[in-house]
């Protein structure tokens, strides 16, 4: 997977040579920007903000592309096929370390900061006899992608509990397949996020570790990012986008019922599940502390040879 990620990222400079149109103001004076993200719960504030006129108040109209995956979003952003996209913070760190011109603008998803009440957890089968992450030493743990933040979170849970995180065998299993993999005993544990965390618990899994809060108290899991070139060429658009996102998050924090009602309208999550899942935290700043720690993990795991300049990665 490290090789696949590197191959995808390294094609970006070639893609970036293509032509792309700048965002242009329409007759109504609004500038249209295209956003790329998987159709997950963190998009709910974006759709609500569009409905409520938040983006319009900042001079923007957003169009959301849910077909571009996080793994291919870096080439799409650098080629100006989309203006902003969501990216796992580890992926952005790797991209920046490889010299790719990505700029994290504002968090897309974040830990709630509350162990026991977060939207990601390390889980085991309820009848496994495992009650601490330390007991996963030398065992098999599933993560959705070996090269992203899930691996760091799983290992951090084990390390904080006093275990040898390097002795754990990580295997890739997509989140939708995790509940069955745990209940059927195909893995000893798994790192999983909502709504699949709730699905796993419904099949008897129990959380034993909360790696997001172990990584950093204000962990940025993923970020909305653009290219550094776009930020330099259109700083007013980037600022307007960040301000609109922050306003959207302020609304989301005060209207959780509307967030939960919105999620089933653009995902395959049912209203019943949306009503009980733990929702991501809404943060206004990309966590520098989290980025530093994730950069260290990426270097340790051989994803990068040296940490990138985080001042170049994170917009301030």
Describe the structure.
The chain is an alpha/beta fold. It folds into two domains: about 1-110 and about 220-315, D-Maltodextrin-Binding Protein, domain 2, CATH 3.40.190; about 120-215, D-Maltodextrin-Binding Protein, domain 2. Helix content is about 40%, strand content about 20%. It has 16 helices and ten strands. The protein has a five-stranded mixed beta sheet. A five-stranded mixed beta sheet has the order 7-6-8-5-9, with helices on both faces. Helix 7 links the parallel strand 6 and strand 7. Helix 3 packs across helix 12 and helix 6 packs across helix 15 (about 290-300). The longest helix is centred in the last third of the chain and has 20 residues, at about 235-255. Residues about 1-20 have low confidence and may be disordered. It comes from Polymorphospora rubra. This is SsuA/THI5-like domain-containing protein.
Tally of individual domains: 2
Structural class: alpha/beta
Mean pLDDT: 90
Number of helices: 16
CATH architecture of the largest domain: 3-Layer(aba) Sandwich
Question: What distance separates the N and C termini?
Answer: 31 Å
- What percent of residues adopt helix (DSSP H or I)? 25-40%
Can you tell me the CATH superfamily of the largest domain? Periplasmic binding protein-like II
| Number of DSSP-assigned strands | 10
Order of helices and strands: HHEHHEHEHEEEHEHEHEHEHHHHHH
Question: What is the gyration radius calculated from CA atoms?
Answer: 19 Å
Determine the strand fraction and express it as a percent band: 15-25%
Please report the first level of CATH classification, the CATH class of the largest domain.
Answer: Alpha Beta
Shape, please?
globular
Major sheet strand order: 2-1-3-10-4
GO cellular component, one term: periplasmic space
Pfam families: NMT1
Subcellular location: Periplasm
Organism: Polymorphospora rubra
């Amino acid at each position: 997977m490290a090789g696949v990620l590197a191959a995808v990222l390294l094609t970006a400079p070639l893609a970036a040579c293509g032509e792309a149109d700048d965002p242009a103001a329409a007759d109504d004076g609004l500038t249209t920007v295209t956003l790329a993200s998987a159709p997950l719960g963190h998009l709910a504030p974006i759709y609500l903000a569009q409905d409520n006129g938040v983006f319009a108040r900042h001079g923007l109209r957003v169009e959301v592309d849910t077909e571009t995956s996080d793994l291919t979003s870096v080439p799409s952003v650098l080629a100006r096929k989309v203006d902003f996209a969501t990216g796992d913070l580890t992926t952005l760190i790797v991209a920046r370390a490889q010299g790719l011109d990505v700029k994290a603008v504002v968090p897309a998803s974040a830990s709630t900061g509350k162990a026991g009440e977060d939207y990601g957890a390390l889980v085991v089968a309820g009848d496994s006899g495992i009650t601490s992450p330390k007991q996963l030493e030398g065992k098999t743990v599933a993560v959705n992608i070996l090269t992203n933040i899930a691996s760091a979170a799983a290992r951090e849970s084990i390390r904080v509990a006093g275990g040898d995180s390097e002795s754990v065998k990580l295997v890739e299993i997509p989140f939708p397949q995790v509940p069955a993999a745990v209940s059927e005993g195909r893995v000893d544990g798994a790192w999983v996020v909502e709504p699949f965390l709730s699905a796993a618990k419904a099949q008897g899994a129990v959380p034993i570790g909360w790696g997001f809060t172990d990584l950093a108290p204000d962990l940025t899991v993923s970020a909305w990012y653009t290219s550094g070139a776009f930020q330099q060429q259109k700083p007013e658009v980037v600022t307007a986008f960040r301000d609109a996102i922050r306003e959207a998050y302020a609304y989301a924090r005060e209207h959780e019922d509307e967030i939960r009602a919105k999620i089933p309208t653009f995902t395959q999550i049912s209203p019943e599940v949306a009503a009980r899942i733990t929702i991501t935290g809404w943060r206004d700043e990309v966590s520098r502390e989290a980025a530093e720690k994730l950069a260290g993990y990426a270097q340790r795991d051989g994803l990068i040879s040296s940490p990138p300049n985080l001042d170049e990665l994170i917009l301030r």
